[in-house]
Amino acid sequence: LWRDIEYWVESAAMCKRKSLLEYFGLSNCSAEEVRRAVAAGKKFGVAIVVNQVHYSLLDYNSPSLQEMQQTCEELGVSIIAYNALGQGLLTDSLTRQKWLDNKPAKMMHIGWDDLTPLRETLREIAGAHSTAENRVSMAQVALSWCGAHKTIPLVGCRSKEQAEDTLASLSLELTAEEIHRLDALALQRCTLDSPAWRRKLFVVLAGVVMSACRWLDWWSASRKHLKID
Q1: For the chain, where are the E strands, in sequence order?
Q2: What is 82-145 written as a DSSP string?
Q3: How far apart are the first and last CA of the chain?
Q4: Tens-digit pLDDT profile for the chain (229 aa)?
Q5: What whole-number distance in Å separates Cα of residue 139 and Cα of residue 85?
């Protein structure tokens, strides 16, 4: 996991030649890493189509994020907006207690007062688009904002209501003035500003978790097989 990004792109190209994949996606890559990956993709014969990163109103005003987005636009790489709602920081249901327990808030040192102007504006815009028949949520506004910036929001829905609310954001169209207001209030707590070693450590830990899950699946299947025999 500590190898250069070119190594993984070349490995992906080998998988493509074996018809195991068609395209290659990145995760949490900076502008420089995106450029290197795309160059390697052209060299080895595999297209780099997406970069999944933390992208929301919590990150937008980070110079690193904006540089990465500009690079992706230049090179034709789409952005998947991971953590688009800040695990609840940009939703109606947030309370002080939930903020205290919120992992992104702890990781990025986001204070309650940091959020207040942004959340008040989200709530105001949501109210302006709401009608007697259709209530627009803060989450819908935050997701529509992501779409207005040509990203693909990635949302984890835990209930039917959340899924319906997420789908409703697709039909919400913000005005240019509303987008500008939100842009101005967006924070700059971007993971791309973290040291490279910390981001690589996150990838390593994620790989360990995935490997452990696969081992547990194999172990469970093996036990079932033994019982059947």
Answers
A1: 23-27, 47-54, 78-82, 151-153
A2: ETTTGGGTTSTT--HHHHHH-HHHHHTT--HHHHHHHHHHHHHHHHHH--SS-PPPHHHHHHHH
A3: 38
A4: 568 999 999 999 999 999 999 999 999 999 999 999 999 999 999 999 999 999 999 999 999 999 999 999 999 999 999 999 999 999 999 999 999 999 889 888 899 999 999 999 999 999 999 999 999 999 999 999 999 999 999 998 889 999 999 999 999 999 999 999 999 999 998 888 866 655 555 556 656 666 777 777 777 777 666 665 5
A5: 7
Burial of 1 (C-beta count, 10 Å sphere; 0-12/13-18/19+): exposed
Q: How far apart are CA 41 and CA 50, in angstroms?
A: 12
At residue 51, φ and ψ (nearest 5 deg) are: -130, 120
User: Cα angle at 138 between 137 and 143, to 5 degrees?
Assistant: 100
Q: Which long-range contacts (CB under 8 A, 24 or more apart) does 47-50 make?
A: 47/23, 48/9, 48/23, 48/24, 48/75, 48/77, 49/23, 49/24, 49/25, 49/77, 49/78, 50/23, 50/25, 50/26, 50/77, 50/78, 50/79, 50/80
Closest alpha carbon to 65 in 194, 203, 190:
190
Q: Cα–Cα distance between 201 and 196 in angstroms, integer?
A: 9
**DSSP 8-state secondary structure symbol assigned to residue 137:** P
Helix axes 138-148, 176-185, angle to 10 degrees: 100
